[in-house]
Amino acid sequence: MGAEKKNTKPHIAVVGAGVIGLETSLQLLTLGHPVTIVAAHFPGSTSIDYASPSAGAHWRTQSDDLFIRHCDAITYLSWLSLFSPSPSSTHAEITAALSTPAALAVTAETGLALHPAVGYTELEGEDLSDVWWRDLVLDFRVLRNDELPTGCKSGVSYTTFAIDPNQYLRYLLAKCESLGTTIIRRKISSLGEVYSLPGLEGVAAVVNSTGMGAREIAGDRTVYPIKGQTVLVKGECKSIVFRQTKEGWQDAVILRPGVGTILGVSKDKGDWTEGEDKATTEWILQRSAKLAPELMKDGAFEIMRVNVGRRPAREGGIRVEIERMGDMVVLHHYGHGGVG
Fold it and tell me: What is the pLDDT of residues 232-243, one digit of tens each?
C-alpha cells in the first residue's frame, strides 16, 4: 500500500468566525490548505461583539464598487446552484423545484431560502428599472405605476435569498469541520499572538477577519460600528420588502426562514450603545404595519425579540490587503459593514 500523500499547501490561520471568517476558511479548505480558525466567538454566541447572528439577512446588492458587485454576483449564483436540480438547470426549472423535498432540505441545512422580494424608492430621479443586477436574479420585473405604494417613484420585484444567519453560520462551521479545520476558541489581543498558539508556530499566513475587533487587534482606528436594531416577529412575510424613504430611513421586511420575519431597520453610525432604543422599536413596528399587514394578529405584531447589533464598518470601505508585519504575512479582510 502506498504512503498517504502529504498535504504540502501552506497552513493558514483565520482569525474571526463570523460569516467573513467562516466563508474565507471554507474557501481555503476547499483549495486544500490546512486551516486553523482562531476566535473568541463561534456560532451560538449572543455577544454584541459577534455581529453576524444579528444580520437580517438576505441577498441585496448595495455597492457601486465593481469588485463588490462581482462578489455579490458570485454569491447569488453560488447559492442558486445549491437549489438547482442539475448544473444545467434553467431559471424556470429552478423555480419549479423550490417546493420539492430536495429544496426544503437545502433550506433546513443551510438556512437559505429563495423568496419573492420587492424594492421601492421615494427618491426623485432614482430609477430602479435599470439596476446592474436585473439579468442576474430570478424573476426580475419593473413594477407598473399602479403597483407602487403611495409616495413611491419606482419599484421592482424579483426573487432573492432570505437567510437565517444562525443556521447559515452553523452550516459554514460544519462544512469547515468536515474538511478538517482546527478550532481554537480564544480571544487574542494582537495578530502576532497567533504565532504563539499551539500548532501555529510555523503558520504561513494569518487572515484577519475580525470585524470590529480589527480596531484593536490591527490598530485600525478607521473601523467603527453602525448600530442596527430590528424586531423579530412571528409569521413568514409574503415578500421581502425594502422601501427607501425621502428622509433617509429604509423600511425593511425580511423573511428569516423557519424562524419568523425581521422588521427594521436602523443604521446609526458611530453608536456604541448596546441596549434597545424603545422609540426605535415603536417606529419600526408602526412603519412595518403597512408593509406586512399579513403578520399582524388582532392589530399587532407578535414580537419574539428585539435584536441589537454592530455592523463592523470602516472609513474607506472594505479592506482586502496583504501586509507584511515583520516576519508575519497578514491578509486583511474586514470592514464590510452591513454587506458581509
Answer: 999 999 999 999
